[in-house]
Amino acid sequence: MEDTDLGAIWLTLKLATVVTVLLLIVGTPIAWWLARTRSRLKGVVGAVVALPLVLPPTVLGFYLLVAMGPNGPVGRLTEGLGLGLLPFTFPGLVIASVFYSLPFVVQPIQNAFEAIGERPLEVAATLRASPWDTFWSVAVPLAKPGFLSGAILGFAHTVGEFGIVLMIGGNIPGKTRVVSVQIYDHVEALEYTQAHWLAGGMVLFSFVVLFALYTFNPARRKLA
To answer: Angle at CA 54, nearest 5°, toward 49 and 55?
Structure first.
C-alpha cells in the first residue's frame, strides 16, 4: 500500500470522525424538535433534512459549491471574516459531509425519541424536573440506541462518500483526497491491484459496521 493510500485512509477517518461529532451536536436538537413538535413546519423541516436521501450527491455538491464560492452568500461571508473560501479545503469537506449525512443521524435519533412516549417525560415533570433535566436525565438515556445507530450510520456514510467530496474538495493529496477518490484514481490509472486493496477494505469496513449495528444495538436485538 502506497503512502498516498495511507494518507487517504487517515484523511477519511479524520473527516468521518469530525463529521460524526458535529452531526450528533447539530442533529440532536433537530431530532428532538421533530419528535416533539406539532408545528405545521414539521413536514417541511423533515423533508429538508431527508433531501440528501433522494438527491444525487452531485446536485447537492453543486449548490453547496455555488453557495460557498466567491459569488455565493457563504463565500462572501467567509471572505468577509477573513477565513477565505471553503471549496477545496478540509473545512469545506466537513460542511458538505454534514449536510449530506444529516438524515442518517437525525432520523434514528428522532425515531428513538418518538419511541419513548409521553409517560416517562410526564413522570419526570411530576417530580419537578425542569425540561432541561428531563431531556438529559430521561430522554437521552432512553434514546441511547438511536444515538448509537445514528453515530454508526453517520460515520459509515461519511466514509463512503464520493460525489459530494469530489465536487467540494476536488482531488488534492493530503488535503481533500479521501479513500473513495483514491480508488477512483487507481482505476483511472488501471492500477487495479491498489484499487482492490482499498475497495476490499471498504467492503470489509462496511460489513463490520452493519454487523455491529445489527448485533450490538439493544433496540434491534429486542425486535429480533
So the answer is: 90
pLDDT mean over 180-206: 89
Provide the domain count of the chain. 1
Spatial CA neighbour of 30 closest among 59, 53, 50: 50
Q: What are phi and psi of 160, to 5 degrees?
A: -90, 5
- For range 78-86, the mean pLDDT: 89
pTM summary value: 0.87
Q: Which domain holds residue 133?
A: 3-46+55-223
Residue 74 is part of a domain; what is its CATH number? 1.10.3720.10
Inter-residue contact 109 to 27 (CB < 8 Å): yes
Residue with cell 481533500: 176
Q: How many Å apart are CA 151 and CA 177, to the nearest integer?
A: 23
CA 85 to chain centre: 22
Average pLDDT score, the chain: 88
Query: How high is the pLDDT of residue 23?
Result: 96
pLDDT band at 224 (very low <50, low <70, confident <90, very high): very low
Confidence check: pLDDT of 122 > 90: no
In order of 135, 143, 201, 212, the CA distances from 216 in angstroms are 24, 15, 22, 5
CA distances from 192 to 181, 186, 195 (A): 14, 7, 5
